[in-house]
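Checklist before submission:
- one chain only
- standard amino acids only
- sequence pasted in full

Submission:
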Amino acid sequence: GLVEPWRQPMVRILLCGDVRGCLPQVCSAVDGLQKKLPEEQKFKAVFCVGEFSSEEMDLDVKPSVPVYFVDCGPACQDLIDESPQGEEISPNLHFLGHFGVATVAGLKVAYLSGRLRADLFEKDKEDEDDDSGIQKLPEVENLMAKYGTQDAGDRDLHVPSFSGSAGTASSSGPSWEQIKAKEKEKEELNSQLFVDGCYTPLAIERLQEEIADSGGIDLLLTSEWPKGVMTGLKDAWPEEAATRRLAKSAAKQVSSAAVAEVAAHSEPKYHAVGLGGVFWRRAPWLHESRGEVVSSTGLLRCGVCRMVTLGAVDGSRPGVKDVPASSNSYRKPEEDEGGPPKPQKWLHGLDIDPQAPPATADDATPNPWAAKPATVSTFDQVPERADFSAMDKEEKRRWMQRFGVRPDEMQGAADKLAKEMAPKEKKEKHKSLYKVSEKEKKRRKTGGDGHLPFSARERMSAGRGG
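Returned file contents:
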């Protein structure tokens, strides 16, 4: 039962949701938990996700446990500008930085501050097929709608210009200067790591490079939810329906495809997210390439990632706007709100073993971002029979020379083999409509006359003697 001297023990940490300036309240709650625990079971660190900053913040408090946070609140860009690599803002209060991988309390922690700015990640579909930048011709439908009702003699009076020269713009799109100016602006923004508190594709690319060199992530911290995280989930139990409803509404409004890309790439043991204002532990999903090799089989047994979403300290739902349901839309009885929403848990404890591979789970779901497997033909499908009727004499001769058998004979042998290997149908045994007694069955089987009365047997014996 001794622990190896080189093996690091379990690390106990706390996850915290959107602080939103309520740092004294967080410190008070953490102190209360810490006092109840013996020294060897105390928390080593607190990790905060979501909106940490607010318009007004009280930093005149010293946490008893080191607090590490990412931010997507009002002060996010200022924090990133002043200390992109992170810094200790006050005693035991650490801003992790814009993005990266850090070792905290023996854990490998990947983190990403900021939010998604959708226009920076949108691909210009119009320019994907045309690198020259020449303005494309309008679609036929647009031309018909514009000129279809005109007389034949007037159609040549309003021919649009598609020359793409400077200063010329079609009535249905931007000018050449506007297109080039927009492209230049997008290139300048994408050359930066963060813009107005929002990460860029370059930041995501750099983060993934650091994750690839980290040797395995224990904990991933992001403010937003990974897009597509609801994929593959089973229906919620009735007692979990209210929480699932809150999670669905949050997933629609505070999710990011870039965060999903990071989560799928990093394959962490745990993923903590803020925003949404709901405490929810998603069923773990299976990794695709991270786990341990089973020594007896040599196969890779993949572990799981457990995602935890946390409520806000002030009880709000940051990033979520409640959309009133249509009166015509059907809702299950368990989906009704049933009064004001319950307070959501915003502190959650974890024990993480930094030396162990990701754990397995019986309730694991498939990876939400796994590529769909290609359809494979099954043995249940009936194979197509070859047709040799179109073969001429020369082809049949070459076939005979090569295989030593005629094509029709080969097909006949294949059909016979398939018939022999096909499962045989069991015939039902014939059942009599009349019930037969056990005595009658015995007599029929042995041929005796034990079923006859005594007088009949006497007459039969007398007849045989005569």
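Reviewer check: The radius of gyration is 37 Å.
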